[in-house]
Amino acid sequence: MPKWLKTALKIAGGILAFVLLTVIAITVYIVTHRQKVLAMVTTTLNKNLDGELTIRSMDPTFFKSFPDVSLKLNDVTLRDKQFARHKHTFLMAKELAVSVNTAALLRGIIQVNRVGITNAAIDLYTDSTGYSNTSVFKKSNKPKNDQKKDDSESSTEIKQFDLNNVGFTLDNQQASKLFKFAVNDLSGKMNYPDSGWVADFNLDVMAKSMAFNTKKGSFIKDKHLSGPFLVSYNADKKIVTVAPNKLNIGDDPFTVGAQFNTGSPNTDFKITVAAEQILWRHASALLAPNITQKLNQFNLKNPFAVKCQLKGAFSGGGDPLIFVTCHVERNILEALGGQFTECSFNGVFTNNYINGMGLSDANSAIKVLDLNAKYKELPINIDSAIIHNLDNPVAEGTVRSKFDVPKINNVIGTQTLRFTKGDASLKLAVKANVVNFRLYKPVIAGSINIQHANASYVPRKLNFTNTAISVNLSGNDLVLSNIRLQSGRSIVFMNARVNNFLNLYYTAPEQILIKWNINSPQLYLAEFLGFLNARGAPVPVKQTNTKAASMTKTGSFIDQFNNVFEKARAEMHMTIGNLHYKKFLATNAHADIIVEAAGITLKTLTSNQAGGTLNASGRIIQGVTTNNRFTLNATVNNVNVKNFFYSFDNFGLKDLTSNNLTGILSAKANVSGIVTNEGSLGNNSLNGTLSLNLKNGALINYAPLKNIDKYVPFRDLTNITFNNLDGRFNLNGEKITIQPMQFNSSVLNMNVAGIYSLGKGTNISLDVPLRNPKKDKDITDQEELDKRRMKGIVLHLAAVDNDKGGVKIKLR
Fold it and tell me: Distance (Å, rounded) from C-alpha 516 to C-alpha 759?
């Protein structure tokens, strides 16, 4: 071995032996002078205290932090001078280990290099007046520019520290703040650059409470925290900085950073917490209960990225400023009573929606930016939406979409309208209260445009093809325009307006009046017989779970949509070029109609028909069966009686048809009856009165009159002409009562009265003078004609039922 190496080893061994002997000597000294050393330690630690530090006993721990000397202090208690009043002990530790500098100890000076605290409780208490038990620590009065160091004082620089099973509480009654942590393990090192100090440590803590406002509850309550920390202090700026680092909170990893301004009067702070992937419920559970409750009205099924910033003051009262941002990609969002799939957006939460209005739930808001999603397969785009005032939440936003019309069936259901084809686009501004996780009575403004659609109006069993419609909501009014409906051969163009629509939509749908203007070049009523049906009751949608069921209670816009269709009234102003119904044809028709839940009211109808005019009014009362009651008031002027009877299928008469009549007819009818859902008259259902006037008429091949040719021979009863015929009839089911009337014709005259039955019971009195009316054709004096009319032999006949279901003539 080289000589120099031997010499070096001897020197090193000597130094080590000296240090070892010194440590042993100090340890022996401490053991033999235990009370004296304890008094030195207590006195040294009390120098900067404004209270009382007590230590029950002290034991040396040889070689634990060699070459320093380690002291274990047992049952350490630190209290401020006001303890007797507030009863909060600042420090109570079963074991406090202190490592002191050996060289300094030889000079009679205690310099602490390491502190370990085990089985302890630290309680930082501030009462309602602002007094704090941290006043146990004296404030230094040394001038800032005084750089001289008094070697007679202990160094305040602690190189290492360990905390095990330590409870930490910060209870600020004045600011309503409560922080409680159960420290399982907190160990690290500190160094002291010129700027201040730097601490590098690992944390294993259970957060019992982190309440910035005890009235609102705790953040990260009962969450386990673990991870490394790097904390620095700038003495000039009096700022403590926590460098961003990974920290596990509960089961989720976060990046956490913070800054605390100890120089500010209230110790201002800023904390930033971020997670690259976290579930919505996990994230909301980290916040105070009042915020968690609001955020849990929503949910995201898959993890997403989130960042939260808290700004506030430890000594100041009230909530901290909270600002949360998140980024969501192709997720499933549950919100406002619905589920949105393939959902992407940027989100923001703040409790300072309007500056100067305070940090509170009432001034909190959730913002959604650039949202793209699908709602029941309906694509949705929202540039910006907001839910504000979380005490009484209000949602606002503008929804845009372009879609195939059948997809809207998934949204509005198929109880009222069912679409099978078409294209649609919409832009709707929505504002609504949020109640029980969903929109309640939303106010909507904007437009919906539908083209090339095939649709069915389910309650009336009506089908339309190649349909177009524009829906505009402006203010409280609803405007429907550019509507084209096609059903079979009928083409209808429509527009409508509903005043005060949004005010009545939820509160009084039965008061909604839809005013329609309808034009049609040709309309076939048989294609709209569905209007004769009573509105079908909506088929309830079966819900698979209680949550879905809760989304369909009163207040839902879609549910109310069906309710409005059920209860709203429609006022129709119609202009129709050609109006067809079976054999009936009217031209240039104008009608005013009211459609409501109970039935249809025809206010007025004017039209050209059979060469004359037809005016009518009436009502159809729709029943629960296939039969509907109706009333009709009609006036016919100067129509061709042959065509008129043909148009109305002879009004149900079997013996008198359009083939038996010619002439110009005017009539008035006030009748009621039954019409079926198929548009046919109910058998023997007519009741009412009918009066008529037939001019220049003819009765051709009328079979019942042929039966009297044996009583009035040598006359042509196959073609009876007359100038004027007035008649009045009472309709009562199958019985038609013929009021007494005179029949003056080219062949014979008759007085007629009695009952004509559509079934059994015909009994008509016929008084027929045998005098031939042709003998009086040259007489122009009406009074003279009336005198001659019944002269001579008069046959008294009766028209009654025969055995074959027809009518026979016999003498009375």
Answer: 43
